[in-house]
Design goal:
By secondary structure, this protein is mainly α. The protein has two domains: about 5-135, no CATH class; about 155-210, no CATH class. It contains eleven helices and four strands, in the order H-E-E-H-H-H-H-H-H-H-H-H-H-E-E. A two-stranded antiparallel sheet has the order 1-2. A two-stranded antiparallel sheet has the order 3-4. A hairpin with a 4-residue loop joins strand 3 and strand 4 (about 210). Helix 3 packs across helix 11 (about 185-195). The radius of gyration is 20 Å and the shape is globular.
């Protein structure tokens, strides 16, 4: 499977140097439309918001894998860059006043929540992109030499009780998250809880939770 990071490695190179007491950042290749966004993310990282950025980007990528048409991808990426520019400007503006760090983070979370509906609309196009990447052959020596290649066990749909046991949470927690989160974000949440990194999606017709690759 080719990750999105592997696909990104086909475009423009960018790098940044961090504290001299720490290892130098690795060189990465970034598509031209994403250069400004990466710069904004780097600025937020240097301001100490690394954990929030990583968690938010993880959920963003998974949510983008859900429900958007291909022909909106370019416009969607431009919109994300514009949103990041606005968030960066507002965050820098907040640093000049008397707000506490906790208040600024809360403001940022509210802004991120405001773009959640737009994120849900991106999913279909990104799913198509990722399917195209995944369809490209990439075999390791292990699979070439493995006589049981292609015999992986297929996960079966789970009941609510079985899923709660697998994720290590209560049934009430699963019901709450399914009710409060849109499907893409519920998949992202269950994937973080699953020890095998598998996301789960509720199917109204079967009444079961199905695995999502």
């Amino acid at each position: 499977m080719i990750s999105i990071a592997d696909a990104i490695n086909r475009d423009i190179t960018m790098s940044e140097t961090i504290d001299e007491n720490k290892p130098t950042s690795q060189m990465i290749r970034v598509p031209t439309p994403l250069i400004s966004a990466v710069r904004e993310l780097s600025r937020l990282h240097r301001q100490g918001h690394t954990y929030e950025l990583l968690q938010g980007l993880d959920e963003l990528i998974l949510a983008l894998d859900w429900n958007t048409r291909r022909n909106t991808t370019s416009q969607s990426l431009s919109t994300i860059c514009e949103r990041l520019d606005n968030l960066e400007s507002q965050l820098l503006g907040d640093s000049s006043n008397t707000k506490s760090d906790n208040k600024r983070i809360a403001d940022l979370e509210e802004k991120v929540e405001s773009i959640t509906p737009m994120i849900t609309k991106f999913a279909e196009a990104i799913i198509n992109i990722q399917n195209n990447l995944n369809s490209q052959p990439k075999r390791s020596n292990f699979y070439r030499n493995n006589p049981y290649q292609g015999q992986a066990v297929k996960l079966q749909p789970l009941t609510e009780d079985s899923l709660s046991s697998r994720l290590g949470v209560s049934v009430e927690t699963i019901r709450k998250e399914k009710s409060n989160l849109p499907p893409p974000l519920f998949i992202a949440w269950s994937k973080r809880k699953d020890t095998s990194g598998i996301g789960w999606e509720f199917n109204q017709q079967t009444g079961l939770y199905h695995p999502v690759n």
